[in-house]
Amino acid sequence: MPQDSITDTSKPNAGRIYDFVLGGSHNFEVDRQAAEKLIDAFPFLPKTMRLQRWCLQDLAVELTEKRGFDVLIDFASGLPTNDHLHLAAPAGTTIIYSDWDPIVVEYGREIVKGMPNVHYFHADARHPEELLNRPEVNEILKGRRDVALITWGLAAFIGDEDISHIADFLHGWADKKSVWAFNAQAAKDNPHDPRDARILEYYKQIGAPMNIRSVDQYLKLVKPWHPDPSFISFNDWHGFDPSYMTEAEIIGAGPGGGGYGAYLRK
Length: 266
Ligand SMILES: C[S@@+](CC[C@H](N)C(=O)[O-])C[C@H]1O[C@@H](n2cnc3c(N)ncnc32)[C@H](O)[C@@H]1O
Prior knowledge:
By secondary structure, the chain is of the alpha/beta class. It has helices spanning 14-21, 29-41, 45-66, 85-88, 102-112, 128-132, 135-141, 160-173, 197-205, 215-221, 247-253; strands spanning 71-75, 94-99, 118-122, 148-151, 179-184, 186-187, 213-214, 226-227, 232-233, 260-265.
């Protein structure tokens, strides 16, 4: 688990770099310099990161207004800046954010401070029982388990056995009506495509090694949950404007650069 402090500006922090790339203000010079180097090397990254957040906002609307959930529990949330769930979901929705990075949690709490029904906790998403068994979370949920669960931008950073454990635990914990919104950072064809090597090497260097899998691998790992209706590429996401990414950016992002999402049911 990262043990950095929010005040440590001696080295860049992945959460603050992500915040800068998304246009946020919770970052330091050291993060901005690292982010600029990253964008120089991978110019498509700001767009793919924004696309991931845009899909997250869209699913906040789908889960609340269309599927009727009024409690959203989000694992590995990152910074809840102005494009996260609580700004897209209707007022009054209970939102439980969480992350394992203490810097992200501290900034996250600062951002949501004073917002009714919006909470931020420290928890390792590989063990969802950590968050869901917290007394403060039990106090908020008051025994309710008919909730929407979300893991977005996480799967590539954790192992196969972690995803299987999350799936098993949540399946046992959640109500039969619950939905798990799952982002599969998946390759369309070949999860070992050499065109992904550079970006994989970069994430390894910053201490966040990534696994690129196929959608079929994900379908097996999330069992007994199943997608309703199916995994959808971000480039085919509801309301997506196809002119957002140029051909060159799609090619640059490589086969592992895109993402897929699904609403999983029990
Ligand atoms: C790419 S960001 C995704 C943020 C947000 N969910 C989104 O889609 O925009 C990844 C986040 O996952 C967090 N993370 C990675 N592994 C984690 C773990 N095992 N438990 C909790 N958070 C984790 C990181 O600290 C980081 O904030």
